[in-house]
C-alpha cells in the first residue's frame, strides 16, 4: 500500500514537474516577447527622432520660403516706393514688419516643437506603463500558481 501511495505521489510530482517546466517555458517565451517589444520600442524611438529631425528641416524650408516671399514683397514695395518717391520711413516700416513676421514664425516653430516633444513623451510613457502593468499582473499570477503548487507538495 505504501509503495502504491508513493507511486501515486511520484506520479503527481511528475505531473507537477512537467507543469512547472511548461510554466518556465511560458515565462521564457514572455521574456523573449518582452525583448522583442523593447527592440520595437527602440526602433519607434529612432523613427520618432528621425521624424523630429525631418520636421526641423521642413520648418527651415518653410522659413526660407517665407523669407523669399517677404523679400519679393519688399522688392515690390521698394519699386513702388521708388516710383512714388516715398520717404525712408515707409521702408523702415516694411523692414520692421518683416522682422516681426520672422520672429513670430520662429516662435510658432518653437511652440510646435515643444508640443510634438511633449506628445511623443506622453505616448511613450503610456506605452511603457501599460507594458509594466501587464508584466506585473502576469508575475503575480505565476507567483500565486507557484505558491499553490508549493502548498500541494
Automatic annotation (TrEMBL):
It comes from the Eukaryota. Residues 25-44 are annotated as: Disordered. This is Uncharacterized protein. It comes from Strombidinopsis acuminata.
Amino acid at each position: 500500500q505504501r509503495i502504491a501511495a508513493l507511486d501515486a505521489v511520484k506520479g503527481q510530482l511528475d505531473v507537477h514537474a512537467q507543469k512547472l517546466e511548461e510554466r518556465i517555458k511560458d515565462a521564457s517565451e514572455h521574456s523573449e516577447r518582452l525583448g522583442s517589444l523593447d527592440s520595437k520600442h527602440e526602433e519607434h524611438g529612432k523613427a520618432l527622432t528621425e521624424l523630429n529631425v525631418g520636421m526641423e528641416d521642413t520648418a527651415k524650408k518653410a522659413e526660407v520660403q517665407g523669407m523669399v516671399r517677404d523679400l519679393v514683397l519688399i522688392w515690390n514695395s521698394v519699386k513702388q516706393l521708388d516710383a512714388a518717391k516715398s520717404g525712408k520711413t515707409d521702408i523702415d516700416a516694411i523692414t520692421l514688419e518683416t522682422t516681426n513676421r520672422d520672429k513670430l514664425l520662429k516662435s510658432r516653430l518653437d511652440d510646435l516643437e515643444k508640443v510634438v516633444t511633449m506628445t511623443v513623451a506622453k505616448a511613450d510613457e503610456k506605452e511603457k506603463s501599460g507594458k509594466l502593468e501587464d508584466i506585473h499582473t502576469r508575475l503575480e499570477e505565476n507567483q500565486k500558481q507557484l505558491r499553490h503548487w508549493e502548498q500541494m507538495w
